[in-house]
Design brief:
The complex is a heterodimer of chains A (about 325) and B (about 60). The longest helix of chain A has about 35 residues. Helix content of chain A is about 75%, strand content about 0%. Chain A contains 14 helices and no strands. Chain B is mainly α. Chain B has one domain. Chain B has three helices and no strands. Classes of the chains: A mainly alpha (about 325), B mainly alpha (about 60). At the A-B interface, helix 5 and helix 14 of A face helix 2 and helix 3 of B.
């Protein structure tokens, strides 16, 4: 008998177990292998989801375990969906989501397009560009807080250099108008490399012979870009948008470090507000309803997106 | 257009998915728009109907 890993594994199996397994069908053996994963999925994902749905119809408070839990029906949902403060948080999230994705796709694709051209020091530049993505959001939040300082911050000095304004005349994190843009800038700085890497993978997957055939047909560079490059990179780009969209909808750490949701509640994204309701005000039932609303929104968007992605791939 | 409605009546996946997608998109827009509060109030039910519809109709025949 050849000494393969399979024969070694068979030899190492205790005789009793081996006898039992031999009597099982292929389907039963497959279930034995899959069962732990299904069990973990049910325990870690499905059960908490069902439990959260259940809690969203109650007035449960996690800091008062002994208190009687009453079923309040749809009241939690009703209160959330008529609350104008939460509506403002949704708008802040929409602003953050739209502009971060817009800038990240624009700059990320441009960088990938440039990096894809063969030039000296190409690998070094890729490494330098990718660095922000590797940092912890807490670290990024902290050092951008210093960069945004009106007195000593480098960011204010750079803006002042180009605009001629006094560096201490504006405060990125303290101004109601500028704070939403300050978090957009930091998230774009941190996550553009991620979009760039995905676009770069897409660009490198385009075979050279397609461009050569286009050259033979005398297609201009612009035509090649719009009829070869863009359509072939589109699935990758859509994947990047999906990932960043879902991540930014849940954005928490970076914004908490930078602004803590302020000034006022101008940068209080839904995830920050949700955390406050759940773990500062301890309105667990209410927060569960809030979480379900966000979950359904992200789930709906992701469903459309995956469908669109599959359609683009089929083309 | 008549092809679209015929697909709806014959329970074909394509047109029904289109309806579900429009509902989800509309719901998300209503949730995040800065114009009217009532649209925000009804956004969740629109998104929920769209999402559940999407899950069901994705099992319809092509």
């Amino acid at each position: 008998m050849p000494d393969s890993p399979a024969t070694r594994a068979a030899a190492a199996t205790p005789v009793r177990v081996a006898r039992k397994i031999r009597g099982l069908s292929d389907r039963a053996i497959a279930w034995i292998f899959v069962a732990p994963t299904i069990f973990l999925l049910l325990a870690i994902n499905i059960f908490p989801l069902i439990w959260t749905i259940n809690l969203s119809f109650t007035n449960f408070k996690a800091n008062r375990i002994g208190r009687e839990v009453k079923n309040v029906g749809l009241r939690n949902y009703e209160r959330i969906l008529t609350d104008s403060d939460i509506w403002l948080n949704m708008q802040a999230t929409a602003h953050f989501l739209f502009w971060t994705i817009f800038f990240q796709v624009l700059i990320g694709f441009t960088l990938a397009y440039l990096i894809n051209k063969k030039f000296k020091g190409n690998d070094l530049w890729t490494t330098i560009i990718v660095l922000p993505m590797m940092l912890s959001p807490a670290v990024v939040g902290n050092f951008w807080k210093f960069l945004y300082q009106p007195q000593i911050g480098l960011f204010n000095y750079i803006v002042a250099f180009f605009t001629g304004k006094d560096p201490s005349s504006f405060e990125m994190l303290g101004s109601v108008n500028l704070a939403p843009w300050s978090i957009v800038i930091v998230d774009t700085w941190m996550w553009t490399p991620f979009v760039m890497l995905i676009c770069l993978a897409g660009l490198r997957s385009i075979p050279d012979y397609i461009y050569e055939a286009a050259e033979v047909d005398r297609a201009s560079k612009l035509r090649q870009f719009f009829t070869i490059t863009i359509p072939m990179v589109l699935p990758f780009l859509m994947l990047a948008v999906l990932f960043r969209g879902i991540e930014n909808f849940k954005m928490f750490d970076l914004v908490v470090q930078l602004t803590g949701g302020g000034p006022g509640s101008t940068t209080e994204l839904t995830s920050i507000n949700l955390k406050r309701e759940a773990f500062e005000k301890w309105r667990t039932g209410y927060a569960s309803a809030y979480a379900i609303i966000l979950f359904v929104t992200v789930f709906g968007l992701a469903s459309i997106y995956v469908k669109a992605l599959n359609k683009v791939k089929e083309r | 257009m008549s092809h679209f409605f015929a697909g709806l009546l014959r329970l074909k996946r394509g047109p029904w998915e289109m309806v579900a997608t429009i509902l989800i998109g509309l719901g998300v827009f209503m949730l995040m728009q800065p114009f009217v509060l009532w649209a925000y109030t009804y956004s969740f039910i629109v998104t929920l109907v769209g999402t559940v519809m999407f899950i069901i109709v994705s099992h319809f025949p092509e």
